[in-house]
Amino acid sequence: MLLIKNSWATLSYGLLALFVVLIIVDVGSESEIKKVEEINEMRVIPALELNQIPSKEIHVVQSGENLSVIFEKYKVTLNSTYQIFKADKTGDVKNLQPGDRLEFSFLDSKIQSIRIIKSPFLEFQILILPEVTISRVEKMPDLIQSFKSGVIESSFYLTGLKETIPESVIMDLAYIFGWDIDFIFDIREGDKFKVLYETAYIDGVKVDNGSILFAEFFSKQRKFTAIRNKGKNKTWDYFNEKGESLEKAFLRAPLDFAYVSSHFNPNRRHPILNKIRAHNGVDYAAKRGVPIRATGDGVIESVGWKGGYGRSVVIRHGGDITTLYAHMEKYNSSLATGIKVKQGQTIGYVGDSGLATAPHLHYEFRVGDKRTDPLTVALPSALPLSKLQIADFQKLRLQYEEVSNALLLRDPNAPAFE
Fold this sequence. Notes:
Organism: SAR86 cluster bacterium BACL1 MAG-120920-bin57
Helix content: 10-25%
Transmembrane segments: 6-25
Structural class: alpha+beta
Strand content: 25-35%
Order of helices and strands: HHEHHEEEEEHHEEEEEEEEEEEEEEH
Radius of gyration: 37 Å
Distance between the termini: 120 Å
Keywords: Hydrolase, Membrane, Metal-binding, Metalloprotease, Protease, Transmembrane, Transmembrane helix, Zinc
Number of helices: 7
Cofactor: Zn(2+)
Number of domains: 3
Number of strands: 20
CATH class of the largest domain: Alpha Beta
Subcellular location: Cell envelope
């Protein structure tokens, strides 16, 4: 009997403990549920606040698009569009170009402002509310001087790329010295160069390679120097160490980078006709489609098919001088007889039209009826600096030389310049 009583007592205590545990668990669960509900209640954001969050949409202008169509796409009201066009007195805002960037800012689904970014240097800010206003914002870059040097192994262009010189600076350097140096015919392995140029930054970001300030080129025991200075019409020009202009009436070569495949030779045997036939110009071998540039200012005398020359352009310059460019693949579409062209302007593209065995440019330089070797003809220079400018110019030259020489000592190519 005592055993039975003890068993009932144990069972009673066990049931009581279980009941207490269930009550505690139930209370805890109810507490957790209430706690979760409270958190969810705290995270609810009213619909009104959601609509007031600022937002932005970006549009990059494509070819053929205009401002009216773009504004309609981004729900700019007709009244606002009218007010913007009315406030755009100069027409700079609506004169969009492919690549221009538009940023539309919204609040409460209503457009507040528009940014039209033309370039890293120029943008227009349009405020829609409370009334339409247009602000022109021009950003002035910080110009940081950069220095590079190199020793030519195969070609000037490839050496420049190897030395991490921006391609635009390589091309500018070739153009500046292009009045005196034929970068196709004159360049030799071991030739050296150094260049001091500007690099433009806006808000710490590189946006452009600026102008070349100072450069030297060492070729065939000769040193060529280029120093930027204010010249005619208060524009930047380039001069040698004596203040003489590097600019000539004609560029030495009509192509930037190629090689001479056939020289001026009055007794050359023609490769197709297989007979002695005077070669009254210079042939520049280059890839099909390479741009051909006018070597001097002038007027188009003829453009079209010209017998064995194939597709050709003849330009008449001052002093009874004409230049001929032959075997083109195609012409610059803007060319026509009587049209003026500028030195360095693209007039066509390398091909093999006419009596040609491979893509190349045939170039002739004529004075009157006399054909002259374009590689050796003396080219007249532009005006030098005036006597009043020389003193300041020489100070600038010495400054650039000191900076260049100091930076050269930190350059791995420095031993080659000793």
